[in-house]
Amino acid sequence: MNVIKKMKQTELHEFAQIFVNAYPGRGYTEDHINGTKKWFSDVVDQEPEQQLFGAYRDGQLVGGMILYTMKMNLISHSIQTGGIGAVAVDLLHKKEKVSLDLFRYAFKSFLEEGIHFISLYPFDIGFYRKLGFGYGGQMKQYQVKPTHFPKGSSKEHIHFLQREKDHDEVLRCYTQFYGRTNGMIERHDVEDLFDANERRIIGYKKSGKVLGYLVFSYERKYDYVCNLVIQEIVYENAEVLLELCTYLHSQSDQFESIKVDTQDEYFHYLLSNPTRGTSDAFGSLYLETTTTGEGIMYRVTDITGIFQDLRDHNFGDQTCKCKLSVQNDLIESNNASVIIHFTNGFAQIVENEDYEVEIGMNVGEFSSLLMGAIDFKSLVRYGLATLSDCHYENMIQRIFRTDQKPMCFTSF
Predict the structure, then answer these.
(1) CATH number of the domain enclosing 34
(2) Using alpha carbons only, how large is the chain's radius of gyration in Å?
(3) At which of 294, 323, 342 does a domain end?
């Protein structure tokens, strides 16, 4: 039987050892252990929105995790959400349900705090799918020549940004972007963007205001050949984006190629040529453009609660009485059926059995649907959702349709 409780400062070195053994690809020397311990120490001492929990068996630490509380833009509404990170289990106690007990505790803890939606970055997608997590937006990495970015008439507003002068403006710019972008997580500071040991940041400045920025690092290939790697692109309008792209276009004699990590599904339209320059193709006709990764995953932990969080959201102006049934085979206590009355787009949970149509799916698929990562008709087409009356398919499609698939820059 595993007992889950907050970790003490005196246990951080032990958990750091567990963590680096669980993720040896990040490094496993004594320096890595000490660096990880410092990270955990900062969590315990300085981060009120992060809490470190351990799993104990007979008093021995056998695993742990960090629980985060943070605000997320969920389909244009800023709601309190939870995050789970740094999940690690002692290698001597693998396959003993330590992770499962950690997650059961996390779900319960977030519900007690009134948090009904959580996210994480998976190390094993199959495991998290069994836990009821659904896919978010895929991350695509482009690798293109600088000249494949559009070139405008000017880059006069582009400057290297500095922590001392520009921190608050960069935060303001990010906050504006957060407010209009589905899936983004609120930030209280952007200090890490100015870490000169790791990255550089340039921005579009006009009348003292930062209206867009690029965060990037350098990737060395040879002494005089490097790539530029972009981690974040934030901009307020097309004019700002064009100047940022003009800056990138002008780097053709400085960098061999530019790598861009983005969840923007339409990014290739911005480029004159989105191919990787390798002439690789598959099916003899399709030129390779990106490397694609599955990243952040989402989970609704309480159906009634999430609709209460979204009580001001307009679900497509639709009027319908619907029964929603969600399942999670691994954690059966999370199974739920609710009656939702949508009136001119606004949802209300009712206690009666008055409904016109029933839809059913796994909680992971429902989480992805609510987040806008997939549409309802696609779930039905793949056999991942059921509908008691096919005449309602278009209406349910409109209820859960979103304008934008989720994006997230924040790692945890």
Answers:
(1) 3.40.630.30
(2) 23
(3) 294
- Mark whether 70 and 213 lie in a shared domain: no
Residue 318 and residue 280 in one domain: no
pTM of the model: 0.93
Q: Does residue 270 belong to any structural domain of this protein?
A: yes
In a domain, 126, yes or no: no
Cα–Cα nearest to 265, from 142, 352, 111: 142
Q: Where does a domain end: 294, 328, 363? A: 294
What CATH number did the domain enclosing 336 receive?
3.30.1050.10
pLDDT at 333 over 70: no
198 has pLDDT over 90: no
pLDDT score of 60 more than 70 = yes
Confidence label for 358 from pLDDT (cuts 50, 70 and 90) = very high
Per-residue pLDDT averaged across 61-72, rounded?
A: 98
Residues 178 and 318 in one domain: no
What value does the mean pLDDT take over residues 344-368? 96
Query: What rounded mean pLDDT belongs to the chain?
Result: 94
Distance CA 155, CA 243 (A): 5
